[in-house]
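Priority: medium. Attachment 1 of 2:
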């Protein structure tokens, strides 16, 4: 009996404890879900590895409640734009963050696909970024994205070959022709010059530089005047045609995107290449045949032109209007555009900063000694016209320019038609 009593006590206590525990579990209000918020964003395939390694991991370590999910898109930026556009047109886009090329802002903002961030970002925060990148983030005076990196078209050349031949770096397009041909004649390279000639967004990006170098223009965004059928434009096209006719550029150049030109130049087959600064770190990687043999400089102009200009490129982050996670998206944008995140990204992946201070940062300059000069290039870069109808205007130019470069139409006929279509487009938009 005594024994039973001794046993009963702990059993009773255990039973009471279990009842209490079950009660607590049943009666307590549902605990709030701790599942992290996932923010999706889409980018071109070559950008995904550097983003995952240098941006996403660091962000998630600092913000464990927010995940960044990068969806890999195609290489060509206009195909990426089509994917975003389709998602927005269908409504309820899966993307919270919108990773945007500088030329998309007017269209995406005008269509009402982006949140207006003007009141979320202070003027002091904005002042740290390059004015051209900030301008490219605005539409009708309102801010729709924060620049995460800048970009500017550059000329790469084989410093070793020029030095060995006793040649100075080029100052004009005509110099590129002359030097390229001389190096081809010496059999130092197979090709003189490679550039992006495929019918896609890289074509107008390359072309505005040649146009600028011949004193021409595409569309004046203030007056909407169209300059495509002017003699300067024809001369710019004739220069590109002559690079193919003379065998300076490969016949296949009219099918090349950035990565095609980079592979040819990096394998040591070309003397000059037009490309964006991302190619620099790849060019100088340990496995690159041209490591240490390449120099980079701003795009040149024609002998007959008065100024040169690099095309302004660059990417920024906006927030989709349909996103339910504005606070988290803003946290991500602030982190990804911060000085520390950009610096890591630049040092590892060789992109161009959108924050001005980083161009002269000692660590950045120690790795890339051309960055202080790059700030000047960005500040003086040529814009593709920042108009809401940019996508259509670009499509018109791409089609007719490509027709002229592949000899389907003469430069004059092609540009007459391109100018007429562009004028009709802009007139329709004016109403
Ligand atoms: C780069 C530039 C972008 C441009 C594209 C063209 O990604 O940053 O602005 O539209 O190249 O291919």
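Attachment 2 of 2:
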């Amino acid at each position: 009996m005594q024994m039973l009593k001794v046993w009963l006590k702990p059993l009773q206590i255990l039973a009471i404890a279990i009842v209490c525990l079950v009660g607590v579990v049943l009666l307590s209000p549902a605990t709030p879900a701790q599942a992290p918020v996932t923010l999706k964003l889409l980018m071109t395939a070559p950008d995904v590895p550097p983003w995952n390694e240098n941006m996403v991991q660091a962000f998630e370590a600092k913000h464990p409640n927010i995940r960044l999910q990068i969806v890999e898109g195609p290489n060509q930026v206009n195909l990426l734009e089509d994917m975003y556009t389709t998602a927005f047109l269908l409504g309820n886009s899966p993307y919270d963050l919108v990773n945007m090329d500088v030329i998309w802002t007017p269209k995406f903002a005008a269509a009402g696909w982006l949140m207006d961030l003007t009141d979320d970002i202070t003027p002091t925060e904005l002042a740290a970024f390059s004015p051209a990148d900030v301008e490219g983030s605005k539409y009708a005076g309102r801010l729709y994205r924060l620049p995460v990196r800048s970009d500017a078209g550059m000329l790469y050349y084989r410093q070793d070959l020029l030095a060995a031949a006793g040649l100075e770096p080029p100052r004009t397009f005509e110099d590129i022709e002359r030097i390229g041909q001389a190096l081809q004649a010496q059999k130092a390279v197979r090709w003189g010059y490679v550039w992006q000639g495929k019918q896609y967004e890289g074509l107008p990006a390359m072309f505005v530089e040649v146009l600028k170098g011949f004193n021409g223009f595409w569309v004046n965004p203030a007056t909407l005047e169209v300059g495509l059928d002017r003699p300067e434009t024809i001369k710019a096209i004739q220069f590109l045609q002559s690079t193919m006719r003379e065998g300076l550029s490969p016949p296949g150049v009219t099918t090349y995107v950035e990565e095609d030109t980079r592979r040819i130049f990096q394998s040591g087959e070309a003397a000059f290449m037009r490309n964006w600064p991302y190619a620099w770190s790849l060019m100088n990687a340990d496995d690159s045949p041209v490591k240490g043999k390449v120099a980079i400089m701003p795009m040149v102009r024609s002998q007959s032109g008065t100024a040169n200009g690099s095309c302004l490129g660059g990417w920024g982050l906006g927030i989709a209007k349909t996103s339910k996670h504005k606070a988290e998206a803003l946290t991500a944008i602030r982190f990804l555009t911060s000085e520390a995140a950009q610096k890591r990204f630049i040092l590892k992946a060789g992109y161009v900063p959108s924050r001005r201070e980083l161009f002269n940062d000692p660590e950045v300059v120690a790795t890339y000694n051309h960055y202080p000069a790059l700030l000047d290039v960005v500040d003086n870069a040529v814009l593709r016209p920042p108009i809401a109808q940019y996508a259509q205007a670009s499509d018109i130019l791409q089609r007719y320019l490509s027709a002229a470069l592949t000899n389907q139409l003469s430069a004059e006929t092609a540009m007459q038609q391109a100018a007429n279509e562009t004028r009709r487009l802009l007139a329709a938009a004016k109403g």
